[in-house]
Amino acid sequence: MAEVRPTSLLEVQEAVRLHPRLRPKGAGTKPALSAPREGEVVLDLSGLRGLLQYEPEEFVFTAYAGTPVKEVEEVLRAHGQYLPFHPPLAGRGATLGGTVAAGLSGPMRERFGGLRDFLLGVRFVDGEGRVVRGGGQVVKNAAGFPFHRLMVGSLGAFGVMVELSFKVFPSPRATQTLRLTYGNLAEALAAMERLRVLPLDLLALDLIPPATLEIRLGGFPESLGKRLKRLQEILQKEGEVLAEDEAHWEGVRNLRFLEEAPIWVKVPSTPAWVPKLEDLPLGPRRYLAGGELLYAGMEAKGLASLRQAGIPHLVLKGAGDALFPHPPEAFFRQLKLALDPRSRFPLG
Amino acid sequence: MGFLEELRALFPPGRLLSKGAELAPYESDALTAYRKRPLAVVLPERKEEVVEAVRLCYRHGVPFVARGSGTSLSGGSLPVEGGLVIALNRMNRILRLDPKAKIAVVEPGVVNLEVSRQAAPFGLYYAPDPSSQPISTIGGNVAFNSGGAHCLKYGMTAGHVLALEVVTPTGEVVRLGGESLEGVGPDLHGFFVGTEGLLGVTLEITLRLLPRPEAYHTLLAAYGSLEAAGNAVSQVIRSGLLPGAMEIMDRLAIEAAEAAVKAGYPPAEALLIVELEGPKEEVEEEAKLLAQVIEESGALEVRIAQSEAERQAIWKGRKAAFSAVGRLSPDYIVQDGVVPRSRLGEALKEIGRLSQEYGLRVANVFHAGDGNLHPLVLYDGKKPRELERAEELAGEILRLCVRLGGSLTGEHGIGVEKKAYMPEMFAPEDLLAMERVKEALDPKGLANRGKVLPEGVVDPCLEGAHG
Ligand SMILES: Cc1cc2nc3c(=O)[nH]c(=O)nc-3n(C[C@H](O)[C@H](O)[C@H](O)COP(=O)(O)OP(=O)(O)OC[C@H]3O[C@@H](n4cnc5c(N)ncnc54)[C@H](O)[C@@H]3O)c2cc1C
Ligand SMILES: Cc1cc2nc3c(=O)[nH]c(=O)nc-3n(C[C@H](O)[C@H](O)[C@H](O)COP(=O)(O)OP(=O)(O)OC[C@H]3O[C@@H](n4cnc5c(N)ncnc54)[C@H](O)[C@@H]3O)c2cc1C
What we know:
The complex is a heterodimer. Chain A is an alpha+beta fold.
């Protein structure tokens, strides 16, 4: 299999100009999105890694797209900061570029929002080998077309991301997790829907079918106990308290619950859609962020049922056709033409 | 049939304006130094009418500008000479408010504050709060990716838009995004937000709503210098706190606000407002830490709002600051640059120096939490050359922001006002990419023609050929 591994911006430009069909790859982990199709050359970005700029006081860092999320998070942690959208699969080597291109957020997106809320800027190489910058390196900015937001979930369709800038926040000083199991799905769902609209600032609010809720709280150690108690009062249920919960949530964000499944899928959801999704033959799964995001493992028939029901989804692992449905032609096609006129990149 | 006749067939009298006096209110937006006479203004009441109007423009090659409430401070809704203005104020219905799903589906002419008002009975609100929120529209907010005092913590409009229905400049209607907070495939609605009406007209918007914070803790601190207030902001950030808002006003702005609304501010060189928000137990703990940080920052006087009324009083002066400055000077320019937070002190010092050099007063009001400066350049338009000098000074401030690693605009957009400065922030290739996108979606260049993109960007590939 042909593969190029650039180690500089210039080499990325060169590779783009040289090869008619390219498939960018971050950590090189994932068949569904980064495995090359017929005639494609793999552009391995793992050689473009490292932090370019980080000023803790600005809540902003800029890094090469091939930088593993984990590497960035270690540096942030040393300054008491974190990426609040909690990028999934960090523990397995996911890179910043791959996370943005796949458009993935993890359980803690509940508190402050998802990937799209934390990406501030990008430098990418378009389909003609030109370097384009969008956004910037400050937390507030409204100048020019926001190309950085176009990269979120793009699967590399518009260009090869080379540098990315993100907003970060101070990490919660302490965390605790409450796990509650209900009699059936309807009861668990009702409790989740209730919590969603209350001003409780939950770090994570997950529903694990058939009837378990996991709720993570974060903040000052002095206030956590009181907040936990109030939560139990609201729900009129004691539940099980996990005080040392870090390892548990690392497992969740690394999608460990999908390990056994051959196909991994991300499904945008809402609480109202949960019963409908629960009727499909899906395997291990978990609804994150108050029911707004489903990660599910499944076999071929599960995937077929999603398609048949017309439910939008992204396959992360295990199947050929990753994205359903295709982006709306009337807008997507023109953007693709403008940035990748020769259709060098995916989603051609 | 000619363009106007076809428009007449579409819009009843009273909703198609084409006479001089009727057009006058639409000749400019809140940046009144610029005026252009449109050919006509239409006032659609349904999205089909907008779509038909855009298709007509496309067929006849007539440029058009969508307009909300016209509060743009950068000339974004300035008409194109001889073009059509599509004024969307009458499309002001909230189509659906679903508290369980925490979303509101709205028409583009809905006024920002109205969304929060309608959501309030359910304990929800719409977070982006530009100071113009009692009048500006969601359509305008989307076009400009508007902000406000709470952007550090909650982000700008883009983060709160889940889906858009848009008519492209060629007249095609597309739906971008969905009802979930998450999506798959490219974030096309996210990309549309902030493109200032250059890529189409928004017909319908799905917004996310948030639970209203349970408790607030609002603190006002007075300082002996602007620098000391700026340093206090850094100290707050270093302590690990994440306030909902941090705002600074300088002496000139304080005086203006006092004269206008009598907020009861203490006299000082600079005032800092810090607001914490969240669950009450959490805010209580954060407030203890904040008290300690502010004490160490050398504040001369500290006040803490003890009631909602006192909280509102603190905010009243800040929110009135722009218009209040009108009392100090017959005219002023509101500037809107961004600098990295740690360089606020440096930026303010340089603005002070420039103010001296140009002999024009500058009042400073800013969102200190996210480095978004709003220097108000005071001038007297009746004095010869003062407007030009004020514009030059404002331009110098923008260059300064870019030089320090910031941005030309935090929230007011590029419009016509700042397009000449785009090359200071973006390389020719960046601007070309924007132009190529514009051309692909709007081959006849009709949608908000003449805004954002500077004229005469040179293609770097051709530059060599020119010698
Ligand atoms: C041991 C292990 C097992 C895993 N198992 C799997 C698995 O079997 N299947 C699976 O799907 N995931 C798996 N993952 C998950 C994968 O790591 C995550 O999905 C991660 O978010 C993808 O990041 P990545 O850097 O690996 O991106 P990649 O998987 O390399 O790429 C993801 C997408 O991003 C694009 N892309 C990457 N970088 C850029 C860039 N700079 N510019 C433009 N586009 C870019 C790619 O073209 C592709 O569309 C596993 C990870 C590991 C290490
Ligand atoms: C006193 C004052 C205070 C302000 N404070 C703030 C602030 O704190 N934060 C901030 O961000 N801004 C602020 N602004 C600027 C302004 O209010 C915002 O930019 C606002 O979003 C503009 O909304 P509007 O409805 O008035 O839009 P308009 O001025 O009518 O239009 C603005 C832009 O949006 C385009 N547009 C409007 N509707 C549509 C549509 N449906 N589809 C496509 N394009 C459309 C127009 O063509 C134009 O380019 C302030 C303005 C004033 C006068």
